[in-house]
Amino acid sequence: MPTTGTIQPARRGVTVEKITDTISYNGTTLPFPAGETDIEQAKRFYAARYPDIATATVSGPEVKGNKRVHTLTTVLGSKG
Q: How far apart are CA 18 and CA 67, in angstroms?
């Protein structure tokens, strides 16, 4: 005996999360400054507070969860 009714499509949940940019520097996580869209602009912004950032090398970004992490590394030399 046929049944009557409607067929329900399978539901698939999709979660959309915003990816935020962060900077990892010397063990500190820094948020991307508001309005800055690339790592070079962010480096200039933070260079006033952390002077070594101005010449730091950028690696990444690496996605970790809902964050895109740009890692800044400085090369410290010695004089003499």
A: 8
One digit per residue, the tens of pLDDT, for the chain of length 80 reads 444 556 666 667 777 888 899 999 989 999 998 877 789 999 999 999 999 999 999 999 999 988 999 999 987 654 55
Query: Do 7 and 53 meet the contact criterion of CB atoms below 8 Å apart?
Result: no
Give pTM, 2 decimals: 0.70
C-alpha angle with apex 53: 44 to 19, nearest 5 degrees?
70
CB atoms within 10 A of CB 39: 17
Closest CA to 33 of 17, 53, 9: 53
Question: How far is CA 40 from each of CA 20, 36, 58, 66, 80, rounded to the nearest angstrom?
Answer: 16, 9, 9, 21, 31
